Recover the amino acids of this structure.
């Protein structure tokens, strides 16, 4: 289940908004025109986005999740996702840290900041993530190579 892949990744640098929709492990996905996922959780969080040289998001780290959200994300805590694997989701429950690995590639820069995350669950699994970074444009840090 940790190797669940995104079927849509929409990153808008100007607004600091990242929206991801995920495929269900059995291959189903939620079409964009269907009703929202059954259960939604909205929480403040700290986030780090890794971007490639073309400005595409490679990874999103979401930290400081609430205990309720960590419990909902528990199926992703035994993940085998690595930087060299395909896309996937990994949860460090002890650190309340969610890692969304979207694609392989060299990091060119990072965006860091406080933000807001909205998680949508369907059938007890993560179906959507919307992360909005506050002042994302002003918090860019170049990565060392």
């Amino acid at each position: 289940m940790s190797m669940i892949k995104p079927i849509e990744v929409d990153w808008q640098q100007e607004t600091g908004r990242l929206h991801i929709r995920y495929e269900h492990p059995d291959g189903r996905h939620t079409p964009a025109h269907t009703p929202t996922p059954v259960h939604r959780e909205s929480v403040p969080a700290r986030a780090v986005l890794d971007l490639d040289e073309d400005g595409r998001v490679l990874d999103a780290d979401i930290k400081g999740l609430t205990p309720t959200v960590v419990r909902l994300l528990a199926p992703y805590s035994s993940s085998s996702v690595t930087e060299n694997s395909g896309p996937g989701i990994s949860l460090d429950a002890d650190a309340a840290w969610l890692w969304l690995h979207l694609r392989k590639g060299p990091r060119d820069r990072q965006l860091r900041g406080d933000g807001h995350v909205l998680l949508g669950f369907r059938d007890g699994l993560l179906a959507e993530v919307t992360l909005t970074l506050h002042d994302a444009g002003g918090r860019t840090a170049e990565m060392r190579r």
Notes: Residues 138-145 have pLDDT under 50 and may be disordered.
